[in-house]
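Supplementary Methods S3. Input chains for the assembly prediction are listed below.
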Amino acid sequence: MLQRAACQLLQASRLVAPAMGNLALRGLSAAPQPAEDADAGPSTSGGGSGVIEKKGIALRGVPLYLDMQATTPMDPRVIDAMLPYMTEQFGNPHSRTHLYGWESEEAVEDARKQIAGLIGADPKEIIFTSGATESNNTAIKGVASYFKDKKKHVITTQTEHKCVLDSCRWLQQRGWDVTYLPVRPDGLLDLAVLEAAMRPDTALVSVMAVNNEIGVVQPVDEIGEMCRKRGVYFHTDGAQAVGKIPVDVNKSKIDLMSISGHKIYGPKGIGALYVRRRPRVRLEALMSGGGQERGLRSGTVPTPLVVGLGAACAVAGRELQADLAHVRRLEERLRTGITSQLQGVHLNGPADPARRYPGNLNLSFAYVEGESLIMGLKEIAVSSGSACTSASLEPSYVLRALGVEEELAHTSIRYGMGRFTTDAEVERAIDMTVSHVNKLREMSPLWEMVQEGVDIKSIQWAQH
Amino acid sequence: MSAAAEVRSLFRAFLRAGKHYPNYNIREYIQRRAREGFHDAAKLTDPSAVKSLLELGRQELEVVKRQSLVYGLYGRKFKNVLELDLPQVQPAGKPPAAASL
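Predicted C-alpha cells for the full assembly:
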C-alpha cells in the first residue's frame, strides 16, 4: 500500500515537471540539500557531487565507514520494526487500561523474549536500560550497594571500558577495595592472577567479554566457573560480544551482563542488563521511581527503542554465523593486504584468531606520526583507540595496559568491520593506508635511519 | 507454483529490489546475503523448513521495499567515495536523465 502511494507520488512529480522531476521529489526529501553553486567546490563527474566541508576539511564524498566498534548503522529490518511504534502505536507500555498500552506492552515483552533468546536467558531476567553504560553502572554499584555491610572487594581489569573503571573508582571513594588486574601483552587475562586476587569478601568480578579497542575475547567460561565455585558474582560487559560471537549465560556461568543496542545494528539510547534469577542475583536499583522493570530500573520503557533492540537481537541470532564468516574473511584480507605491503606494522591484541574478534583490527605503524596518519586517512572513517578517550591527547589506556610503547600507541589505528562492510571498502582501506604510511615515512628522517640499519634505541640524542 | 519455482522467483525479486537500494553498503549486503542465503537454502530438503524460510524471505523482501523508500527520503544526498568511482545506480522510479545527488 505504501508502495502504491509512493508510486503515485512519483507519477505526479513526473507529470508536473518532467524536466525537473528530480527536483520535485527532492522537495520531499528530509535531508539538508547540498549547498548549490554558492560555495560548492570544483564539481566532479556526472551528477555533480559537491564538496562536503566540515571542521575545515574538504571531502569529495562521504567516507567509508570502518569504525564499527564506535557504533553501527541500524539494520533496515530494525528500522522497519521500530517505525510503527514511532508513528501510530505510540502507547506507554505501563498504561493498563487501553489498547495503546496493551499493544505497547506486548511489543516490549516480545522484544524481551528476542533478547533472552540470543543469550540463552529467561525473558524475566532482562532489564531494559538506556545503554551498556547504565547497565554497567547498575551492575557494579547495585551489587556493591546491596552487599555494603557483608563484602568489601571488587575485582576488574585494567582494560575495561571507562564506565566500569569509573564506577569502580566511585566505589573506592566509598570505602570499597578494588583490584584492577593487569593483563598479558596480548590483552588476555591470566586466570592464575585472577584466582590469586579473589578474597573471601569479594562481591563481584567484572571482566568484559570482548574488548572494544583491541578485540580480545576473554576466557569467560573459565572465569565464570571460578566465580561460581567461590560464590562471587560474575559481571561481563557484553556490548561488543552479544550478537557477534556466540554467548550463552548458562554455559559461561554469567550472573550479570550488559548489552548495548547500537553495537549490534540497533538503535542508540537503549541497552539491557541480564540479571540472573537462579541462583538469584541481589541488586539495589540506581533509578528510583515507579518500580518498573522488576523495581530495578524505574522509568517508562521506550517502546520503539526496545522493539528495535529486540529486532536487532533476533536478526543477530539468525545472522551470527554468516556475519562472523564474512568479517573473518574481510579481516584476513585487510591484515594481509597491509602487512604484505608495509613493514613495521604491529598488531595490538592476540595473534591467535581464536582469541580475537576479527571485526576489530588494531594496528600500530612504526615511524609514523599518529595525528598525521589519521588526518591523512580522511576518506575512510576509522578511529585511533576508543571514542571515549579520543577527546584527550593521551594515548589509549588499554594500549598502555598492554605495555605498548608510547610512540606505537600514538600511531594505532582501529579498523572496525561488520555486517555491511564490503570487499571494495577493505581494498580501498588497504590502498589508502599503505599509500599514506609510505608518504609519511618518506618524509621521516627516523625511517631513513632505520632503512640504513641504525638501531634507533641505541642513539644518544644530543641535548641542546 | 512448485516450491522450487517460488524460491527462484523470490530470489530474483530480492536481487531486483536490492539493486535499487539507495545506500551503498546495504545494497551490496542484500546482493551478497541473498546469494549466500538462497545458495545455502537450496540444500534443504525438509518441506516445512523450506516453507518457513520462504515465508521469512517474503517478509524480508517487503522490508527491503519499504526501507528502500525510507532511505530514499531520509538518506544523505552525497555519495560515498567508492560510489563516486563506480557507475551510477539508478534508483527505481526516478527519470534516468537526472541522476540524484
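The two ends of chain A are 77 Å apart (CA to CA). The first helix of chain A runs from residue 2 to 16.
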